[in-house]
Write a structure and sequence with these properties.
The complex is a heterodimer of chains A (51) and B (226). By secondary structure, chain A is mainly α. Helix content of chain A is 94%, strand content 0%. In chain B, helix 4 runs antiparallel to helix 5. Classes of the chains: A mainly alpha (51), B mainly alpha (226).
């Protein structure tokens, strides 16, 4: 691989990795939101049984 | 205006990105001077223009907030600026890689275009320091909106710097005579720019939806626990 090819591949790879990292961050955030929704569902159930 | 559904937006962005990369490597001609490394242009320049668009969109939403005091506009401005910083960081990274292969250096402090873009980038990085150092509320939203509007002034300065500068090595592709490239290069560039803008729109919509969902859940929790 020539230096030109290496640097061009690196430039495109940087963007690809950044998008991938962003997707991973959003994915983990989505999981956190899912856990929070589940906790709220439990809370509503508890309130209903108490009431 | 009816909002475009997120899956359609994401699908369009993915298709445009795939098409853009295919055109950049298999359709656009190889530059006789720079060779293969010139193809970094198709990712670097659309990234830079998209970051300007993000900051511009953030400033527009900030202006809307100041006019209407609508909290949604404040959140939209914040998310647009966050996206702008991500695209700006990628612009600096890809530009640095291109500079290394073309000029033999990772960075040149003598280049007005580079330094002004860095100033713009750092200015918007400081936006987050301001935002997270003040307690949430109307005062924070006002300060952030004014700050975002000030930053918008730097966008045309950064964009025009290269055209006003007399001494530069950074190439000028778009000048008063139009785009200085062949038809196939211009088509590829336009597709890549559309792809980056679609990527921004997708990430903006995803982040905004996540932030709104987060706020709604917090409100719901407060309602249930009090």
């Amino acid at each position: 691989m020539s230096p030109s090819e290496k640097y061009t591949a690196a430039a495109y790879l940087v963007v690809f990795v950044a998008v991938l990292v962003y997707v991973v961050i959003i994915g983990s955030k989505l999981q956190r939101l899912q856990r929070q929704v589940a906790q709220l569902v439990d809370l509503v159930r508890e309130n209903r049984t108490d009431g | 205006m009816k909002a475009i559904r997120l899956p359609v937006l994401a699908g369009g962005a993915t298709a445009l990105l795939g098409l853009g990369i295919a055109l950049a490597f298999f359709y656009a001609p190889t530059d006789p001077d720079q060779g293969l490394s010139q193809r970094i242009f198709y990712v670097h320049v659309p990234l830079a223009l998209t970051s300007y668009a993000c900051f511009g969109w953030g400033a527009w939403k900030a202006l809307r907030y100041l006019r209407t005091r609508d909290e949604r506009a404040d959140l939209e401005s914040y998310v647009a600026i966050h996206q702008g910083v991500i695209f700006g960081a990628l612009t600096l990274l890809t530009g640095s890689i291109w500079a290394r292969i073309s000029w033999g250096v990772w960075w040149s402090w003598n280049e007005d275009q580079l330094v002004l873009f860095l100033v713009l980038f750092l200015f918007y990085c400081a936006y987050f320091m301001l935002r997270f150092s003040v307690e949430a509320g109307a005062a924070r939203a006002n300060m952030c909106a004014v700050y975002a509007l000030f930053g918008a002034v730097l966008i045309p300065v950064s964009f025009l710097a290269i055209r006003l500068s007399k001494r530069f090595i950074h190439p000028v592709v778009f000048n008063s005579h139009g785009p200085q490239m062949t038809g196939s290069q211009f088509v590829t560039f336009c597709i890549c720019l559309a792809a980056m803008l679609a990527l921004f729109a997708t990430l903006y919509a995803i982040e905004l939806a996540g932030k709104r969902l987060d706020a709604s859940l917090r409100e719901l929790r407060e309602l249930l626990t009090t």
